[in-house]
Task: structure prediction
Amino acid sequence: MQGHFHFTTAGESHGEGMYVIVEGVPAGLALAPHDVALDLARRQLGYGRGGRMQIERDAGRIVAGVRLGETIGSPVAIVIPNRDHANWQIAMSVEARPDAGDEELRRVLLPRPGHADLVGLLKYGRSDARDILERASARETSARVAAGAVARRLLGELGIEVGSHVVRIGPVHTDKRGEDGTDLNRRSDASDVRCIDHETAERMRSAIAEAAAKGDTLGGVFEVVARGVPVGLGSHVSWDRRLDARIGAAMLSIQAMKGVEIGLGFEAAGLPGSRVHDEISVDPTSLRTGGFQRSRNNAGGLEGGMTTGEPLVVRVAMKPLSSLTRPLGSVDLTTGDAAEAVRERSDVCAVPAAAVVGEAMLAIVLADAVLEKYGGDSMTELKSNFEAGIERMNAVAPFRSS
Ligand code: EPS
Result:
């Protein structure tokens, strides 16, 4: 997605590393290696992760765009080496290896139902599904989280905070809402399933352990909440400027995501309007909402494709991972015979990690929308535009300007 703050990633799961270039970062943003390392470490955690996470120590190395602790307006480039590459040098060799056999090259000829293996192989005209799965792998989300950490720093300077928590793993769910109370990540990071309800967290762990014992996997739902978002980001005027559409696309671009809800979400479809819409009153102390307040936040912070200034609340559904240790039926691509899908080492459940990726994607969309509305080549310019813009919106209502 091209925009004011955008990023591109490159890298295969067992190649040398993951790479990201972030474009549009204003000059003068303080950015330290630990800002990136912190989020990368959070993404590696979670009960239900597999053996790979014991190998990787993602920290990220900033290699461009930052000088003496501050961004300088040029693209920010970050490298995340794959430690596991040391074990994959032949299979992931850049040079041709006519000397190596199928096993050494770790060819995949038994596509997994639910993964990109089969469709990607047909589309790209490849005979080895490894050419597809290496890039389809959710390892790529490490690069997104690095980009998201830059976005988070930028938003932090403007008083915007992004957090997440897990509300469902398989059949186990909680009604606890992330927007009730502040400091969401402090509460969710304290749990290894990132669930803020202790009793539900215990049941989530049991569900994951049970799935693991059966050679199965579990999906779930996470909620991402952004606080301090000012009114008026996004726009109602065109489909691709609506912020809910941009958030939806960003979330569905994360590997294995199947659905997105904003605010009350799908539940709103079954309720009358009187029980859905958030009534308006005046609150001159509430600057980020333009001096108004709402009776509740069923809209999830978005009306008409624009932010209302209330917390942004986005829920995302993740399907269960498609690498099963007790594999599903597939076809052997060399013979055409029925066969079990390949057994690839994988996680049992990655919803807690996916929630951290969801934070990154929301932070990126918000940083983009902030720069679109307020602009600025430097952080000083952005901040002054931002403050003046909020002040201006607080004076718009006719009863205030008279
Ligand atoms: C993944 C499979 C597993 C996960 C991986 C995503 O990797 P491997 O095949 O090396 O065991 O661990 O996630 C990561 C490496 C990561 O950093 O999140 C997949 O097939 O999508």
